[in-house]
Amino acid sequence: MSTIIGGSQELKSEVKQHWENETCGTRYGDDRDRKRYFEAISEARYSLEPYIKSFASFPDAAGKTVLEIGVGAGADFQNWCKHAAHATGIDLTERAVSLTEERLALNSVPKERYRLLTGDAENLPFDDDSFDIVYSWGVLHHTPDTRRAYNEVFRILRPGGVVKSMIYHHPSWTGLMLYAQHALARGKLRMSMKEAVFHHLESPGTKTYSIREARQMLSEIGFANIQSHTRLSPGDLLTIKPSEKYASGFYKIIWRVYPRWLVRLLGDRWGLGLLLAANKPVSKVQASK
Length: 289
Hints:
This protein is of the alpha/beta class. It has helices spanning 9-21, 34-48, 51-56, 75-83, 94-106, 146-156, 173-184, 193-200, 211-221, 234-237, 249-257, 260-266, 284-288, and strands at residues 65-69, 86-91, 114-118, 131-137, 157-168, 224-231, 273-279.
């Protein structure tokens, strides 16, 4: 569908402004003590999405170089700094970089262990074959040209390196809820579930991928050993803390009566989270060395 493809600078600016206004996860930090503020964000993140730690497998970064695309408030990046030989973080927003720098300083993380900068996932400012691990959780579906971003990941990975990323899955419970709200309830029957997500989930232009679509994209780019599985997200279960646009009494009732037990019972098949891991192949010449 044409509205889901392409990468205008105007859309990218809108995405940037959205996340400058509210860095991912910060609605869970409300303590005046700044160190406690960041701890609360981390606690909420790993409580709501406990599978992040097993998927990232932070200790596996020992002795390796890591790039995280989209650092947010720095919860995962702090873990990469703890284990990796060196960690680099890049984010589209100045706010995320500032928060992550503050978090690391409060936790006395040595500056020589990391580098943080603002930048664009579609135009990564790194040399070819620079990193052993590239990690990105819930970010690359927001950039207008997601395929270009994955091409960049492939370029900067060292041969044998691994990408670990989560992008949004289609179909999902979250997508179904947005479709019911913005299409069915308003008589817009020509709107698809993907379009409902594109226009109404988080920043404008958010894309979703079936497992087949995502695997095909990575395969065409050149990745090998592609692994994929879906997981229920806090949005699917409505365990997420609502944003301001869902603060009315009507939505409070929805949050209260939502059948989480049924969604959990039906499993992860319709989960919003699509977890992807893959390797940049080692050439025969490199393998023989």
